[in-house]
Amino acid sequence: MSATAAGKLDINVSETQLLADLERLGRIGLGADGGITRRALSNEDAEARSYVAERMRAAGLDVRHDEVGNLRARRPARDGATWNTRSNVVMTGSHLDSVPSGGKLDGPLGVVGAVCAVEALNAAGVQTERPIELVVFVGEEGSRFKRGTIGSAALSGHVAVADVLALVDPDGVIYRNAMATYGDSGAAIPARVERGSVHAFVELHVEQGGVLESSGTDIGAVTTIAGLVQHMVTFHGDANHAGATPMHLRRDALLAAAQWALGIERAAREVGGGAVGTVGKLTVEPGGKNIIPGRVDAICDLRAPTPELLTALAGFVISSLHGIGEQRGVEIEQQLLQRVEPGPMHELAIAAVERAAAAAGLSSLRMPSGAIHDALHVAEVAPASMIFVPSIGGKSHCPTEATQPRDLVRGVDVLARTLAILANE
Ligand SMILES: [Zn+2]
Questions:
Q1: Distance from residue 93's CA to the centre of ligand 1 (Å)
Q2: What is the pLDDT of residues 213-240, one digit of tens each?
Q3: Listed residues: CB within 5 A of ion ligand 1
Q4: Regarding beta strands 240-241 and 291-292, do their DSSP bridges make them parallel or antiparallel, or are they unpaired?
Q5: pTM above the 0.70 mark?
Q6: How far is the CA of 188 from the centre of ligand 1 (A)?
């Protein structure tokens, strides 16, 4: 089959199966508020993973696990080769762990969606020149160990396997020991893939924003994953009586923090190009209703699609602190918590997603991803892109995260066609 013939594929995704899979996973770790809590390597995570492993086997995949606990499953190429193959592999996958009380689509769609996509290829009798590998990445959300995107960072070599295995959670549990919940038997395959051994990677995911819905577009073809800078800033003012202290004698730490936060909003708008800035965490001390705030700890989260924009935004946010401190008589300390570089996606994979959407009769839009995904790390070693489907109301990381069933099916349809294109070109 030629790449162009991919457009003529008879792809029929089973909506019943896809919704049943998502519904089944949506019961694992379900809380009273309707949110899902599945921390990496927890019993809930393990239960979801073993359900998916069974589904993968039923779809005819050869299922393995790697040194850091990523689940790795392959569909053979036309010549029957799976792991010992001369041609490089086409990969897809996502994660099963969640934020505390998260939604049921963030991660699982790209996992069971991949299984359903393989089943659609099987049903359509599609054979490919390259094997197709499905990956369930461990610990994408970072809600248990100190870092997120653990499995994909190990796969790309961004983080050494030994460093992953030595991670410790807040309860003192070491990653290496926590992996026992998975109950894997048999030898693990290496986590790391060599550059050149993966032809392309594509991840199906909910958009988690409102761009597709508001523009009436079916599919997003992701062109870049925004980078991130987080700073912790402490404002030291003077706690005092809220009634007895005249306004001109105050050193109010919260007002300094508020002025800074408003400046971040202004800076992000001025920098433009998709740059965004948020102060989502403030701790006000002493925290009394009749006490002038004496100390505020604040964390800002800055994101932008290019290193230049990210540096410009972060530069403004830090340089503004000096003037605010002088003006308000407040001492300010700041510390860089982390900087993650933006991850450009690759034209090979982006174009394949666009072609697949067109072949499925769907509209598509090239767009950046504001959120970080496993594709960020895989892109370090292979051409990568992502397929976004619309999020209702742009909601995610909360129990109300949802996507129309029709759009879920369309995403899987486009994934199946994208895999067929990439695995046959
Ligand atoms: Zn996700």
A1: 10
A2: 999 999 999 999 999 999 999 999 999 9
A3: 106-107
A4: antiparallel
A5: yes
A6: 25
